[in-house]
Amino acid sequence: MFLGVAAGILIGPTGGYMEPQTSALVGNWVALPGKLFLIAIQFVVVPLVVASVIRGIASGEGGSRLGKLGSRTILFFLSTTILAVGIGLAVSTAIQPGQYIDKSLVEHSLQSGAQSIVDKTATAGKSVPKPEDLPELIISIFPTDPLSTFVSGNMLQIVIAAAIIGIALINTPLEQRTPLLEILGSVQAACMVIVGWVMRFAPVAVFGLLAGLTARVGLSALLGTGVYVATVLAGLLILFAVYLALSLLITRKPLGIFLKNTREVLLMAFSTSSSAAVMPLTLTTVEQKLGVKSSVSRFVIPLGTTINMGGTALYQGVAAVFLAQVFNVELGVSGMLLITLMATGAAIGSPGTPGVGIVILATILSSVGIPPTGIAIILGVDRILDMCRTAVNVTGDIVACLVVERLASKDETPSP
User: Fold this and answer.
1) Shortest CA distance to 315 belongs to which of 273, 259, 287?
2) Which pTM does this prediction carry?
3) What CATH number has the domain spanning 2-411?
4) Closest CA to 129 of 344, 346, 333
């Protein structure tokens, strides 16, 4: 990251060592690894989401216990995700990070920015929706044809379609659903192999993205992005504090013990930026160090790895408001409600892999009338935010296990 900033200063307008035309040419080539990195992540998004959601739902326990376990888990994830978006919107509205950027310089630099990357994920809507348009927007979220939905790339519809299939498989005889689950397991494993290949180039991609950003817009935009980074981190700290408070309320143990027991998995999540990559360690931690039953943890953790993305939802809410401020887009109440709905749905559909949130964000931006090319402003700093929000997401998975375990134990306690 630091080398990328330094290289961008040398080749960009701040350094003044190159002519503007030469600087733009060099900047585009330097940013190429980062753009390829994002495209490679996009390549596995749809198959990984479909496989993860269906297997996360259909591989759990059957019967009424699954119904209680699943409903409580999903209710926890849904409520905390909505809370996370609310925190993000509130923090970004209070701090106003978009006011710290030179808007004319940014708008000029984005004319040839990230359009080629976001075109595939951006929707056609360019105007801020009105309250009377919301019912039609809600109807449009639901898929009409699973095959065309999976091809379309609409992440929220893909998740809904996959969830319907997963629930249907729960009510299918075991011998009939097992072959499909095994195939989806192979798809999921293959996708993770591809992600592993891509992540080897992450340092080069981060260097290229930061160098390209700094070369295009100079230090003024980077410093403005720094305020945006601080805003996201402030929101994540608040959400992390909420998770810690829930842990204290459920376990009645000092927070120091919780942090000591979970520090290894949280540090691993921070360094890998992938909740899926640390899922085995998460399972070991909640079962051996926190005493959660395997019947609970082995349902909640895989499902949480797929649909519990509170940190991602918070980040997308902050990013949407930040870019709305940059481009002078008045969101209003309807825009805020739509961001909440879209960020919640998109976060639930984000697989536990690095780099996916920045891609799904393009859809949210287009839905509220914000130019999706604006993601070029925040691409360079997304890596450090991805690390932080992944650690928060994994914390949410762990706390969800504690909450669901406590509720399950109350069910098993005989009445006096």
Assistant:
1) 273
2) 0.67
3) 1.10.3860.10
4) 333
